[in-house]
Design the sequence.
């Protein structure tokens, strides 16, 4: 990360919000804010984290990346 006030501080979250808007929000209509919140949360946990491929993760989903990282960790789990 960059210094405080640097444009690099928010790059990851801004990229996520851009993807969320382009791939999901702008393609649907929601009757209420509550419905929008529930559908967006479901999209994040059901698709974005589990199926969508990310270039930062070597074109794997974040879940697969985390599982591989934990499996290959030299530290292992504490007893």
Sequence:
């Amino acid at each position: 990360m960059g210094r405080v006030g640097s444009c690099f501080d928010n790059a990851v979250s801004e990229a996520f919000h851009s993807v969320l808007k382009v791939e999901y929000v702008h393609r649907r209509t929601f009757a209420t804010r509550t419905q929008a919140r529930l559908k967006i949360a479901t999209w994040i946990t059901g698709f974005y984290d589990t199926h969508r491929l990310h270039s930062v993760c070597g074109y794997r989903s974040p879940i697969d990346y985390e599982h591989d990282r934990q499996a290959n960790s030299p530290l292992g789990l504490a007893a």
Observations:
- The chain is about 50% helix and 0% strand.
